[in-house]
Design brief:
Layout lengths: L2 E5 L6 H17 L3 E3 L13 H14 L5 E5 L5 H12 L3 E5 L1 H7 L3
Parallel strand pairs: 1-2, 1-3, 3-4
Length: about 110
Amino acid sequence: MRRAYICSPLSGNISGNIENAKRYARYIFKCGMAPVIPHFYALVLNDEIPDERKLGMQAGLSLLWVCDEVWVFGDEITEGMKKEIIFAEKLNIKVKYISEKELKKTEVI
């Protein structure tokens, strides 16, 4: 199964953004791919502690090596997301953008 890395906001509203990552993972499954979800590192690391945030970012970037694509979700691109996108492009990994509008078309009400 091909793997898609979830690239979306985390900082700020961490619990809400983790819930969004779950939505994005379901979308990726519906598209026939396996989601790679770096957001779950925030469940064991404290994103508000700079060294732990850095560790989580490094761990997330290391996952890109095994991904086939990076899917950028939402209508906002944060600084952390920019780093993921740039790194993916350096690795020649396809980057796909999915807006909230596009995502909502596929969700069941």
